[in-house]
Amino acid sequence: GRAETFGKSLASLELCTRSLGEYLETKRRKFPRFYMISNADLVDILSKGRFAPAVHTHLAKLTDNVAAIHWRTGDNGGPSPTALGMRSGEGEAVQFKNVFPCDGMKPEEWLS
């Protein structure tokens, strides 16, 4: 009956939770700063990570004082996944010597 169905659903949920935890641990081993953020934030970063500007809101949690990345403007007027520089929390700006294309890269790759 219902108790059996609930038990199976709970077992499936526990398996999914354990599998997700193991996956997140592999990502944390590749980029140790991921240990500083919650599972929910890491899932958000990984789900949006192939489009680097979408991860922008998590930068302060991952770095000591990088408040923003300056992205090249795309054809649509929004940010493109090419980093031009960065800005600190105090407003100090640093332009990169070379632009850094992040398009299609995994978050742990372009954040390194």
List keywords for this structure.
4 helices; single chain; alpha+beta; elongated; three-stranded antiparallel beta sheet; 112 residues; 42% helix
Description:
With 112 residues, the chain is α+β, with helices and mostly antiparallel strands. It is built from 4 helices and 3 strands, in the order αααβββα. It has helices at residues 2-30, 39-48, 59-62, 107-110, and strands at residues 66-73, 79-88, 93-101. A 3-stranded antiparallel beta sheet has the order 1-2-3, with no helix packed on it. The longest helix is centred in the first third of the chain and has 29 residues, at 2-30. The N and C termini lie far apart (51 Å).
What is the tally of helical segments? 4
Can you count the beta strands?
3
Range of helix content: 40-55%
Strand order of the largest sheet: 1-2-3
**Which word captures the global form?**
elongated
The percent range for strand residues is 15-25%
The helix-and-strand class reads alpha+beta
Main sheet characteristics: 3 strands, antiparallel
Task: Pick out the low-confidence regions.
Answer: none
What is the chain-wise order of helices and strands?
HHHEEEH
Q: Distance between the terminal alpha carbons, to the nearest Å? A: 51 Å
Average of pLDDT: 92
- What Rg is obtained from the alpha carbons, in whole angstroms? 18 Å
